[in-house]
């Protein structure tokens, strides 16, 4: 596979952009090699600057639920863009997008923003404003964007690069952030026992997807799922339960992880799919809580491009086209792919655990066969990332673009058809063999 043009562009990029990329995980840092510079994309395909064609299992890290360059999304964008691209004044379409989000989720009001980071940052401010408390609880390996106070034991790029915090985040900023292992109920109980009346909220990924996919665990004794436990302990202590559905929302089911476990959070964050590939995100909750936001209430929050008409058109069209059939297709494709990956890895004796939340899944290259489940970040970190890197590059060479990190989920779209799946499946044996050789 020829990659000279990507290599040239990467060289040039590194002169003007830190690390050559505008978001860390794109840099192939944890798997090595040259990141591919993408020229265009269509359906399940990515085409790089050298003309190579890949089946894309990243889908822009989630947004492209309908595949790339979906004709209806393009047409909706084309139609609105000629009428002006930003007004700094309200529009009918943003009301429609808010209504579409409310229709699918338990929130009663939403505020649109431009990125998932903004959504989580804003929702923390609202939770603190409403409760009058300062402390927040987050989980190791959960990533909620690069919000200062949440850049503590974060997942995603931070997990991959082994940066459990970041220079530039002050001790004062994180002093009110309490961290414990995901799915560890005793640790949460302990935090509440110690700080109960100071905790404004618990923020969690609805199903963790930034340390690999780690769904909320179910308690063997009482059958409750982790989200349910969190909601109950929050409410028993006057704290708010915040579910971050930026990654899972409108992807793992029509109503996100809420559609799977039915646990109603006090506040929720959304992004990715609801922006249809444009910068749009949102947060929402009960009318009572959301009415505390300016200008209705006293908690300040704002954005020049919030509810941007082009992003809203793309998001609204995507949600309208994300029918039950779409989710059924993606769910089925995901199940088939998980089975094929497991088969290939087993044939070559590569220890692994595959976990999913709806159609979102990831493959953990576990150190040995004694690890049969990955409930938390501590376990996720025992992965053989060297094996993943070998697997990743063999897949890439065969024209399959996996997330370039062992800590990321694999994303599918409605355009991943039998032909796309066949190409992935064909590539698996060599990739599994490559992983086995490490
Ligand atoms: N929350 C979650 C769960 C995410 O996965 C992400 C991004 N991967 C974010 C928040 C941040 O979103 P953004 O990158 O749009 O700021």
UniProtKB/TrEMBL annotation:
Its cofactor is pyridoxal 5'-phosphate. The keyword Cytoplasm applies. Pfam families: Aminotran_3. Transmembrane segments: none annotated. It is found in: Cytoplasm. One of its GO terms (molecular function) is glutamate-1-semialdehyde 2,1-aminomutase activity. The modification N6-(pyridoxal phosphate)lysine is found at residue 272. It catalyses: (S)-4-amino-5-oxopentanoate = 5-aminolevulinate. Its main location: cytoplasm. Its EC number is 5.4.3.8. Pathway: Porphyrin-containing compound metabolism; protoporphyrin-IX biosynthesis; 5-aminolevulinate from L-glutamyl-tRNA(Glu): step 2/2. Homodimer. This is Glutamate-1-semialdehyde 2,1-aminomutase. The gene is hemL.
